[in-house]
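Before relying on records like the one below, remember that each one covers exactly one chain. Contacts with other chains, cofactors or solvent are not represented anywhere in the record.
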Amino acid sequence: VLTKAISAGAFLVPFVAGLLGKSALSGDAHWWGIGIALAFLAATGLLLIKDLDRPDRFLNVLLRPQWGSWLVRGGYSISAYGGLLTLWALAGWFGWTALLPTLGWLTALMAGVTAIYTAFLFAQAKGRDFWQSPTLSLHMLVHSLMAGAAAFAVVGLWVELPVDWMPFLKGLLIAAIAANLFTIFLEIVTPHPTEDSKRTVAMIVKGRYSNLFWLGAMLVGNILPLALLLFADSAPLLGAAGLVVLLGIYFTEKIWVEAPQRIPLA
């Protein structure tokens, strides 16, 4: 889930920057962004194939699709995003400028779908009540923006970014962390209708995953980077905030994936 968030965010963040009138990435920074998006998308595909009970049958998912399954839809979403991202990169390389606006919107759309489809895949596991939360897709979209901004904050330690990108990344990370905390608050505090989902929440906030949640996801992944960002007036501080944001996303996703599966189905 983290690799997918980084890949989607690596395209969505420059896209959002363009919508807000910020400077476009160029040179090394531009190609670093594309490289990160493609590399982490490839890593996502490999991890998904590895997680299948029969990895050798992966092609059956695409060639003999069951369209009601979000595993299939997700596979096609990743493929479409990868194809559009590659085409968008080629259009920039060869100067096909007339194609860039349309390709940009299409690629951003598929980046968004790629970021959130796992929420719908989880929702199809009807026995896992905690995954039925309507905020899960929003949570994953927020994570993609956090991950993308964090990735560029780290890249900025080695590659020169446009002058207006440091305040842009700082503001985006602060806003995304605030949205992330609000989403977590909704998922934890909102009354849950079933006993299984209540047990999952209890496991997260005061049980097996409480240390990882409070110290890892909340303190390291949200409070610490927020404190760093409030005083971030240099690339090293922004990069440090980016690193702990990525670590926090990993902790959060680990908890959200594992904890509901600890509740016996029978």
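Residues 27-51 form the longest helix (25 residues).
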